[in-house]
Design goal:
The chain has one domain (2-123). The chain is 34% helix and 22% strand. The protein contains 4 helices and 6 strands, in the order βαααβαββββ. The protein has helices at 17-26, 30-44, 51-60, 78-84; strands at residues 2-4, 63-67, 89-93, 98-102, 105-108, 119-123. It has a 6-stranded mixed sheet, with helices on both faces. A hairpin with a 4-residue loop joins strand 3 (89-93) and strand 4. Helix 1 (17-26) crosses helix 2 (30-44) and helix 2 packs across helix 3. The longest helix is centred in the first third of the chain and has 15 residues, at 30-44. 30% of the residues are buried.
Length: 124
């Protein structure tokens, strides 16, 4: 279910989870995604990693954001989401982490499967 992948072109483990996740779901390199987020951030006069910036970018790319139901706020994990969504392309936001999900697999440079997602961006 977990595919270990780090699109960071230097293989760094840093606070670039938004760039890593978006590069995976958009099929772009880490550098291309970083630059696109920087341009969007410049347009909005905000930092590229601000939620509003990458939310705006994902919406422009055909994604729609929804809250994940709060029926079990601490027990529905990224792994559970993957089991429930065996097909499709998603971006999950946990509040402090962003991860790509593609066809039932979460793709990240560390095993974030036990994190609890709050929002999902679905390609429409």
């Amino acid at each position: 279910m977990w595919i270990q992948q780090n699109p960071n072109y230097l293989g760094k483990h840093t606070t670039d989870c938004t760039i890593r996740a978006l590069s995976i779901v958009l099929g772009k390199s880490w550098i291309e995604t970083y630059l696109e987020l920087c341009i969007q951030g410049l347009i909005m006069a905000q930092m590229p990693s601000d939620n509003q910036v990458w939310d705006t970018l994902l919406r422009a790319k055909g994604f729609q954001r929804e809250a994940i139901p709060n029926s079990c706020p601490n027990c529905y994990t990224i792994k559970d989401f993957c089991k429930d969504h065996p097909t499709g392309i998603y971006v999950l936001g946990t509040g402090n982490h962003v991860v790509a999900v593609v066809n039932g697999h979460y793709i990240d440079d560390w095993d974030s499967g036990n994190e609890v997602p709050l929002f999902v961006w679905t390609r429409t």
